[in-house]
Amino acid sequence: MKLTHRVPFLLLCVLVSFTYSVVLDQNCVHFTSPVQGQTCKSTLCTLAVDVCSVTLRVDFQARYLPFDRNEPVIVSLGSITRPPFKLIWNTANVPNQLITGVSFLAEATLETGQVISARKEGVFFTHQPVRIPTFTADYAYKGTNEFTNDTLVIPSETTTHTIKASIFWNETDVVFLIDVKDPSYNATLPANIQNEMGVEILIDPTLSRKPFPTSEVLIFAVPLNGKAYRINYMPVFENDGSFKLISTASAYKYKCKVDKWDYKGYSVVFPVPNGFFGKRAPERFGCNIIIKSLDSKQKVKRTSWIKGNLYDSYSPYIWGEVRLTPKPLLKNRFIQWLLCFTAGLLTAVLLSFAFSVPKRRKIIYKIENSEYDQELFEKIKAGMDFHITSQDLTLDKLARELHMPPGKIHKIIQRQTGLNFRNFLMYSRIEIAKERLRSSHSSEASIADTCGFAGVNEMEKYFNKFLKTTPYKFRLEQQVA
Questions:
Q1: What number does CATH give the domain 24-125?
Q2: Across residues 265-280, what is the average pLDDT?
Q3: What is the pLDDT of residue 155?
Q4: Where along the chain do its domains lie?
Q5: CATH topology for 369-478?
Q6: pTM above 0.85?
Q7: How far apart are the C-alpha atoms of 258 and 187, rounded to whole Å?
Q8: pLDDT per residue over 281-328, tens digit each?
Q9: What is the phi/psi pair of residue 4, to 5°?
Q10: How far apart are the C-alpha atoms of 253 and 265, rounded to whole Å?
């Protein structure tokens, strides 16, 4: 009878023991330090766990990324055999841990021999100093697709690739110009490979300098095949201690330009409208540019303006800083209009004043220019034309032949043409030389001699004076085939 009463009691004890064991397994160890999502700026990091009373030992491990590798390493940090179960990790030789951060594992060994573990992911380190490069973006009118003087050259591990970029801004957007010289590129590459190739533009509008991208960060992908899109990252910290970055893609609705050339490379013109920043682009923002091209093994390789491992290049903490220069005063549309209006008004006034004197002279000329003067001028011109190609023709010689005073000849020529005797003579010879340059293949020296010039130099001198060009250029443009 007594045995019958003991059976339910024993079953109850077993059930309580099992329930206690399950609860013990679930809550026997958990991290109190570091806190998930914490950013450690010191080289000393404290690890601490709370454990149940039957714990004999706690072993700590850390998993992190080295600077020059994309594969994580796991290191043992040590064991603690008595309370408090705490240790200090010296991270002086560990690089900054960004994007994914460090993952910690604590394994508690109980008196029963059971091993219970707890983890803490998403702990970030920014204890190592970083050098932030800067780039100055100048103002340029909307539609400009040319590189500015301040060009950013992005070093590439592939010697055959040359990458340069430029950034400028205007009232509507911030424009990125990227040019990639890639002699191995050709349009016959499969579409899926060209989808992976191209450019990524990363912008931190608020200069938050967080270790990982958030929803405020702008990341745009411009593939060589297909349409551009935006990548949105959302950090998620789970209750079980895990951490992950969830990414989603959305279409980019604005126009961008991708030009491709076989065996030469490609270029990208990508505007980021001010709407992405709010009302207008900030004067300073974080930025990185990533180029995705094929390496010698025909695999897509990322080349980043900001150097680091594959993950670090996506961390706003180390991105460069772009600074927008103030808009030049002379590039203000209203100021330009005002200056042009003022300049035009002053030009009109000056021209009006300048032409007022010739008009008066023209009236006087009409009064004084009698038929007799016109007849004399025709006589003088005929005498000059008769000897025009003679190099020894002078004013005195012409005066003797025409039986007229030299001074009178000079005055009549100047009154009729506005030129003195010498210049009118050379002008007449230039007219002859023009026709011969147009219609013959004779040398310039021969034409200069047959037109009465002292030589080629004299002919070139007066060509430049009257026509603002040279005999060679005149022939090149005007010669009849």
A1: 2.60.40.10
A2: 92
A3: 85
A4: 24-125, 134-327, 369-478
A5: Arc Repressor Mutant, subunit A (1.10.10)
A6: no
A7: 13
A8: 999 999 999 999 888 788 888 999 998 777 889 999 999 999 999 988
A9: -65, -35
A10: 25
Query: Three-state SS for 308?
Result: coil
| Phi–psi pair at 203, nearest 5 degrees | -130, 130
What pLDDT sits at residue 462? 92
On average, the pLDDT of the chain sits at 85
Q: What are phi and psi of 322, to 5 degrees?
A: -100, 130
Number of CB atoms found within 10 A of residue 358's CB? 11
CA-to-CA separations, 244 to 37, 65, 107, 132, 304, in angstroms, rounded? 11, 15, 22, 26, 23
In order of 384, 390, 421, 463, 469, the CA distances from 453 in angstroms are 14, 8, 15, 12, 17
DSSP string, 204-227: ETT----SS--TTSEEEEEESSS-
Q: Given 2.60.40.1120, 1.10.1040.10, 2.60.120.380, 2.60.40.1190, which CATH number is that of 134-327?
A: 2.60.40.1190
pLDDT at 13 over 50: no
How many angstroms separate the CA atoms of 158 and 298, rounded? 12
- Contact indicator for 98, 309 with CB cutoff of 8 Å: no
State residue 161's pLDDT score.
82
Determine the 3-state secondary structure of 392 from DSSP. coil
Which residue is associated with the tokens 């970029």? 165
Provide mean pLDDT across the span 206-213: 93
181: left (phi over 0), alpha (psi -120 to 50) or beta: beta
pLDDT of residue 369: 56
Q: Which two tokens stand for residue 319?
A: 């991105």
Q: Which two tokens stand for residue 131?
A: 């050098």
CA of 376: how far to CAs of 8, 300, 381, 395, in Å? Answer: 150, 88, 9, 15
- Which of 9-13, 383-387, 409-413 bottoms out in mean pLDDT, i.e. has the lowest? 9-13
List the structure tokens of 66. Answer: 């080295």
Per-residue tokens: 232: 């949105």
Domains 24-125 and 134-327 share a fold: yes
Residue 333's pLDDT band (boundaries 50, 70, 90)?
low
